[in-house]
Design a protein that fits this description.
With 224 residues, this protein is α/β, with parallel strands linked by helices. The protein is built from 7 helices and 6 strands, in the order E-H-E-H-E-H-E-H-E-H-E-H-H. Helix 2 links the parallel strand 2 and strand 3. Helix 1 packs parallel to helix 6. The chain is globular.
Amino acid sequence: MKKKGFVLLDRDGTVIVERHYLSDPDRVELLPGSAAGLRQMASMGLGLVLITNQSGIGRGFFDETRVREIHQRLQDLLAVEGVELDGIYFCPHKPTDDCDCRKPRTGMVEKATKCLGFDPQKSFVIGDKPCDVELGQAVGATTFLVRTGYGAKVATEGSTNPDYIVNNLVEAAEVIQKIIALSSQRFSCGDAARSAVSGQLSAQAAQVLPLLDLANFNCPDLNG
């Protein structure tokens, strides 16, 4: 089935519980609500792609085989919840390696767009760190900071400027659904449209609203 668009997701602290340099597949644990949020996104016809920095490989803490085992365990857990990822991309390099793929650089997104054929400017990027938000901004996507993982601290510090701040992936899915609904109804951008979004969201999900140009965000025409 052709996807209407794509959601690009960080891994640790966004989809699964943050474990410092996770190296054991048995310690993979879905965050509360993450499967439900991903399932809701998929039900909208959106593709789901994992984009993750894994410098533990470059640091010698574990190898690529172990990372693939961890990702298989993650996919197994999601499958039980009725969720399937369309792609997983990881950067194995250390920050000092000056590579093109480590977030917030865009190499992994560029590879995903070539493989899956979508426009990153019509996508959503979700994560718990500044590098996730900066990645989304670099490719022109709509950005979300989740308060899971390191996100609550990042939000308090104000060290990044996402379009939306939400508590978890369920709330992110709510926001995305309202954006798509408003776009398909050809609502104009501005305070009235943003008020319409916030009025239909849970109180927590509407805590921070974006400066998003809803008139130009044409979700129904996304290319997957």
